[in-house]
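Homework help board

Subject: predicted structure for assignment chain

Our instructor gave us this sequence and asked us to write out the predicted structure in token form, then describe one feature. I got the tokens but I'm not sure how to describe them. Can anyone check?
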Amino acid sequence: MVNPFRAPKGWRGNQLNIAPVMVVGLGRFGISLASELTSNGVEVLGVDSNAKVVRESAPFLTEAVVADATDADALAQLGLEDIKHVVLAVGNQLEASILTASNLLEAGVPDVWAKANSEAHGRILNQLGVHHVVHPERDTGRRVAHLLGGQFREFAEIAPGYSVTCMSAPAALAEQCKPLDCVWRDEGVQIIAVRGADGDFHPVTPDTVVAPSDIIIAGGSPAALENLTR
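My token output:
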């Protein structure tokens, strides 16, 4: 059995308080996710069937292993009983994704996240019982669509029909000088925080006044957020 988790040089401790994670598939999505985890002190075992990919990814991981995750016996040799979280980042190969997901679930992994490249792929993963299905291409497309206009600095869909954005204070909002809790009533947008001249974000209070130069964090439906910028 592989003992994948040994503290690398410069280890800073687990800042995210996440148990060790196995990432299966070290393509762009997999290695980006794994790198973010390890940079925050999370122990990550990367797994890929391509030896070249594993060698190139090794510097960003706690450990990297060449293995065929569609083979249940090969997966068992990686010590799945010690791993609570597995991210299945194989999306382009539908058969490999489904077989690996099935192996992980049959092995009793309690928290499986899987990348889906299409709605149909996602439905199959859900039907298998995968705990969390991720659609990175779809979600990135939605995000970029709302950033293209240049009004939003960041945009994230938190739940269906509700998004959070970072934007420069709309002129109409700064000029109205009305209580910010009225923005929800009138515009369907909640002002969450404001970054002022000191460069720090501060939660909104009844006394908060938005200046034209401020940056705001706001939440609401995508349509309401877009309307607020007009």
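Reply (TA_rk): Your tokens look well-formed. For the description, you could write something like this. The longest strand covers residues 152-159. That's the kind of observation they're looking for.
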